[in-house]
Amino acid sequence: MIMKFYQLSRADRLTWLKQAGYLTDESEQRLLAQTPLAEAVLSAMVENSLSEFGLPMGVADHFLIDGHEYFVPMVTEEPSVIAAASNGAKRVAASGGFQTVEVSHLLKAQVIINGVTNQVSLTKRLTDAQSAIETVVIEAHPSLQKRGGGLRQIEINHFADGYSELALWIDPVAAFGANMANTIAEAVGTYIQQALLKKDEQVLAAVLSNSGEKMTVTVTCQVDFTQLATAEFSGQQVALKIAALNHYAALDIDRAATENKGILNGIFAVGLATGNDLRAISAAVTDYLCGANRPVLSTWQLDQHAEVLRGRLTIPLPVGRVGGAINSLPNAQVSLELLQHPSVETLMSIIASVGLANNLAALRALVTNGIQAGHMALQTANLAIQAGATGEEIGWVQQQLNQHQPANLALAQQLLQQFRNRG
């Protein structure tokens, strides 16, 4: 791991990553050139395409996950997100790194039936037809079976007002699998409507579920007290404050919402960089929190005997490393290259680890110097740009703003004029 990676120029960072084996020559040149998407790709990906919408792409360093080092690609418009991820990861890496506890990657497809008057009878018919349903699944998507995936579990659930559900739990292998789940659900829905349902029973809908119930990952870490200390507070004091603030979030949903947002800063940034569906992640996290015993995603607990702070994050992550936009977006492919072409389970662990790293950095800042100190030092670059600074002007105005707190747009404009008057 190199030191002060953030101080290198963009070109030097790309050169270093290429020489270290994280990027090919082609990917380095693509990122240097910032090649836009081809017209045909744009038109194929969205209706009524106009152009691309650019967001900054960077990497967070210092990540040690299950014994492997990673430079993690992140796409975000907020200056502090990547800095916070690297900050948290560095403290965790010095204490042993992140560990994956458990990963599951099963997608749910639903066949929803209404008009059910005899739940016992419907259950028997569906149960007796399980072998036939399995055959329909295979025939609907034969390539999935060949890749080692397919149907893993069938559930029959009944609800009030004459509704029932046939739940199909599918292993989509390396993909998130939304399209294949829809294809399978529709095929099974057609089969049971024609072969099994009676009288007023009707297939109301056949579609994937975005619950993420069995597409979850749990990661843990420990942080030595020595890695948390500041000039004003001992590491033990900081650890105690972090654990207390996290405990408060478990009691107060308003605080929990903000803490969860900090976790999702990292989760979404890596999800976007790898071409994954942020709406699916949002829906799954919402569903998970509605059913959880606590409103905050993470847990931080003090271990006084070992002199460490222990962190844990369980989160649903409906993601893939192939399919959809992942295959269509060149920079998503570069992101996976940077991550050394991980399995989908490893990708889930990486994304969750970034979320926990962002969480640690935010909590540590909150209980020590406050969140604004770090945020504003990075936000000043945006103020310089908003003031009209370009090229070398941005760096000079940012440096001056960081020395003249509180910074604001009017001050940025004044400093920019000073710089231009000097020329």
Automatic annotation (TrEMBL):
Record keywords, A-Z: NAD, Oxidoreductase
Coiled-coil ranges from the UniProt annotation: none
One Pfam family it belongs to: HMG-CoA_red
Catalytic activity line of the entry: (R)-mevalonate + 2 NAD(+) + CoA = (3S)-3-hydroxy-3-methylglutaryl-CoA + 2 NADH + 2 H(+)
Pathway membership, UniProt: Metabolic intermediate metabolism; (R)-mevalonate degradation; (S)-3-hydroxy-3-methylglutaryl-CoA from (R)-mevalonate: step 1/1
Superkingdom of this protein's organism: Bacteria
PANTHER family the UniProt entry points to: 3-HYDROXY-3-METHYLGLUTARYL-COENZYME A REDUCTASE
Protein family per UniProt: Belongs to the HMG-CoA reductase family.
Name this protein carries in UniProt: 3-hydroxy-3-methylglutaryl coenzyme A reductase
